[in-house]
Amino acid sequence: MIKVMIVDDEPYIRQGLKILINWEEHGYIVCEEAANGIEAINRMKETDIDLVITDIRMPGMDGLELIEYTREHISKKIRFIILSGFYEFEYAKKAIKNDVADYVLKPVQREELLKVLEDYKEFFHRQMENFKKQEHSERIIFDSHLENLVFGTHDKECINLVKRYLIDIINVRYIRIEYDFTDDEYNNLHSKEKAKEQSKLYYALNTHLGVNGYHTYIPQKDNSDFFVGFIYAKKLTEKENISEKEYIKNLHDTLKATLSY
Q: Quick one: which of 259, 235, 240 has its CA closest to 250?
C-alpha cells in the first residue's frame, strides 16, 4: 500500500477527501492527516510517508514552504500533490519547480483525483522497481568485497565499502552457518534442492537481522557444503542488551523454527 498524508487547514476537506474514494481499493492507505505544514512535518518525522496531498494556502506554513522544507530536511523521495483553488493556479504552478507529482483544483472531483492517483501509482511502482534493481546490484558488489575481506584478499577500497554497511568491523568474528549433516533427510537432497535450502537459510537469517541484513552473505568460493556466512558483531548483542551466548541461542532457535532441516 502507498502511504498517504492529507494536509489541509479545513477539517471538512480532510474528511471529504478520506471518504471521496475507496483508497485501499486503489492501492493507497491514508495513514496520517495534518491541519498545517508544521503539523505535517511532525507527522513525517514519526511516520514513513510516500505521498502528501496538501492544500497550497495554509496559515503558518503553506504548501510550497512545506514541500521545500521536506526536500531539504526530511526526504527528497516523498512526493506531493497540490490542492489549489482556481485563483491560486498561477501560484500552484510554482510547485512544478519543486517536482510535485501533480496538482488538483478545488473543489476536488472524484474522477480527477483518481486519475492523478493512478498516474502517481505507476510512477511509484517504477521507482520501487528501479530501487530494487539498484539495491540488488549494490548487494552483489558488497557481497564480493565482504568475501574478499573474509578470505584475506582485500584492499583499502574493500574495507571502506564494507564499513558503510556493517554495524561494526572491529569487534567481529566470522560464523559459518550450515545445515546438520547428520540429518539423513537433508543428506538425501540433490544439489539443486540443497541450493534452495541454502537460499531459505540466507533469507531467514536476513529477516532475523532486519536492518543489519548485510551481516550475512552466501559465499561463492568453496561453498560445496551450501553454508551461509554470518559476520557476528558485538554491537548486535549490545543493541539487545543480552550476552553473546544468548544472542547466538536466539538466532539458532529462530532459524530452527523457520527452516525444514
A: 240
**Contact between residue 228 and residue 164 where contact means Cβ atoms under 8 Å apart:** no
Helix (H, G, I), strand (E, B) or coil at 95: helix
Report the DSSP beta bridge partners of residue 177.
228
Intervals of the chain under pLDDT 70: 86-99
pLDDT tens, position by position, 49-94: 999 999 988 888 888 889 989 989 999 889 999 888 755 566 656 6
Q: CATH classification of 2-122, choosing from 3.40.50.2300, 3.40.50.261, 1.20.1280.260, 3.50.50.60?
A: 3.40.50.2300
- Rounded distance, CA 180 to CA 201, Å? 12
Backbone angles phi, psi at 215, to 5 degrees: -80, 0
Residue 135 CA to residue 164 CA, distance in Å, equals: 14
From CA 200, how far away is CA 194, in angstroms rounded? 10
pTM comes to 0.61
Give the span between the Cα atoms of 4 and 155, in whole angstroms.
Answer: 45
Q: What is each CA distance from 52 to 35, 126, 159, 200, in whole angstroms?
A: 13, 18, 40, 37
Radius of gyration of the chain (CA): 25
Q: What is the pLDDT of residue 96?
A: 57
